Model the fold of this input.
Amino acid sequence: MTDEVLRNGLRVRCEQGVHLEVRRACLEFGKWMRKEFDFPIRVVVYLKKDYQIKNITTKELVSATFFAPYDKTQEPYIRIATGDYLELLEELGQDNALASILGSIAHEVGHYYQWVDNKDLDEDEAEDYGEYMLDLYAQTREHP
Done:
């Protein structure tokens, strides 16, 4: 029997084609999250250039997903669709468009913590956690 060493931390990976401003904001948010929060099991946030991504469980098209493996020795991951950024930019302005994407990341990180704590994945709780995280982040800078 071998002792497995689990990796920890949060990583952000950007698919080619993700808007450069989205990439910059998400990488900066990731750096801040690593300083402020503990990630006891490695989680990778994949930024996708698509408008929507398919939930692997429900097959629904969604803007963000969290994969929660049953086995805690497997690493979870988050996928975020960013393809609607230019539309959000036109509709909401840059700060709110970026905040929307960062909010999706924060919401899915809320699910990550539910998973780490062996809780059921609850949308309302994840939404509250995401808002809390974004409020903290907003206190550290003028713009996302």
Summary: The mean pLDDT is 94.
